[in-house]
Design brief:
alpha+beta; Tetrahydropterin Synthase, Chain A; 2 domains; two-stranded antiparallel sheet; globular
Amino acid sequence: MATIDLITLKKLRDETAASIADCRRALDVADGDYKKALEWLKKRAGEIAAKKADRETGEGLIEAYIHGGGKVGVLVEILCETDFVAKTDEFKKLVKEIAMQIAAMNPADVDSLLKQEYIRDGSQTIEQLVKGVIGKLGENITVKRFTRFEL
């Protein structure tokens, strides 16, 4: 087991919002290699999301986003399990990011949206972004529906 550098541990936690225990475990598994630890945490978030996929999502938020001086508008409905999670900054940020993604990339439907490359980080898809937030918040999250308007 490698000695854990606290600066690296803090950086990993700040970037991923994963628990300190998970960050420590990731660095242990990766022998202190930051990039490998980051990949391990992304994989773990996907595993957590898969375990929660069958949970019912009855709460959430509807976000309205207007872009291009009023030329493009989006309404998106994103669901989670509890109103507690729907009120968190992390969930609100996810909903806004997905609304901006829809405005920018004009996906045909939810499935194509989830497969799209995330506009802020081309190394992941929207589905991976959602799974990452599921891993952080511990609840199932689904993109229910959206509508995009353009003049």
